[in-house]
Design a protein that fits this description.
Largest sheet: none
Shape: globular
Number of strands: 0
Helix content: over 70%
């Protein structure tokens, strides 16, 4: 079962990923050059560009997938369903945040 601390981590990862991919890598922002590189990289290697920051949902999923083992280093393999739920909820929250941000900026 996911704990309150897990939900806090899920929220933090989702907010970071959406902020990074939807805001900071856009033209005129601080990571604009990285965003341009991702745009060019997406043309040749879309499956690699997405988890590197081209897609907020993909970035949050990767951070959650690999971060869960690091954040829960006592026994990360104890409950695979907990790990799957952690990653799935992070991606879902990122999708909601990304959709909400796109509606705000229209």
């Amino acid at each position: 079962m996911l704990t309150e601390y897990d939900f806090l981590q899920i929220f933090q990862i989702a907010v970071f990923a959406v902020t990074f991919s939807d805001i900071l890598t856009q033209p005129g922002m601080i990571l604009e050059s990285y965003g341009r590189w991702l745009d060019q990289f997406y043309i040749s290697r879309p499956k690699l560009a997405r988890p590197l920051g081209y897609c907020g949902k993909c970035l949050s999923g990767q951070i959650a997938l690999w971060g869960f083992g690091a954040f829960n280093s006592v026994n990360p393999f104890g409950c695979p369903l907990r790990w799957i739920s952690y990653v799935s909820l992070t991606i879902l929250l990122s999708a909601f945040l990304s959709a909400a941000y796109s509606k705000l900026t229209r």
